[in-house]
Write a structure and sequence with these properties.
It is a single chain. The chain is mainly alpha-helical and about 130 residues long. It has one domain. Helix content is about 50%, strand content about 0%. It is built from six helices and no strands. Helix 1 (about 5-20) runs antiparallel to helix 2 (about 50-60) and helix 1 packs antiparallel against helix 6. The longest helix is centred in the first third of the chain and has 15 residues, at about 5-20. About 25% of the residues are buried.
Length: about 130
């Protein structure tokens, strides 16, 4: 991988926070967050800080790191086998289409696919002390 495991794990944690969001179900509710128990916290909105952070992270890594993330997703999705890592990485580098941040953020279950891709390569986001890293 051309990206540090710690960066992938940080991305997975951030993507999990983004993945639980849902569309705005009642944009004109007029309710008070305290009165409604902060239910709106899990609703995606324009300028959502979690989305902004996730996008900034993805845009802040270099091209090799972005290719590794795309290849990890493909590996986690089953498009490639672990022994085909080099081919997956090469194809990810040659990928055309939307910017990598848009591509990755548009993938349902992104954190799960990244986690499965890591596992296929024998890596994990669980720290050495036995605590969950993700």
């Amino acid at each position: 991988m051309d990206i540090a495991l710690a960066k992938v794990c940080a991305l997975i944690r951030q993507a999990r926070r983004f993945d639980v969001k849902e569309g705005d179900t009642d944009p004109d509710s007029g309710s008070n967050p305290i009165d409604d128990g902060h239910v709106g916290t899990l609703e995606a909105s324009a300028g959502d800080p979690i989305e902004v952070e996730l996008r900034a992270f993805l845009e802040g890594v270099n091209a090799d790191e972005q290719a590794s993330l795309v290849a990890l997703v493909w590996l986690g999705r089953g498009d490639f086998e672990p022994q085909e890592w080099t081919a997956a990485l090469r194809q990810a580098r040659e990928r055309s289409g939307p910017p990598t941040s848009d591509y990755l953020m548009g993938i349902p279950n992104l954190p799960d696919l990244l986690d499965e891709g890591l596992a296929a390569l024998g890596h994990s986001c669980v720290d050495e002390d036995g605590g969950a890293g993700v």
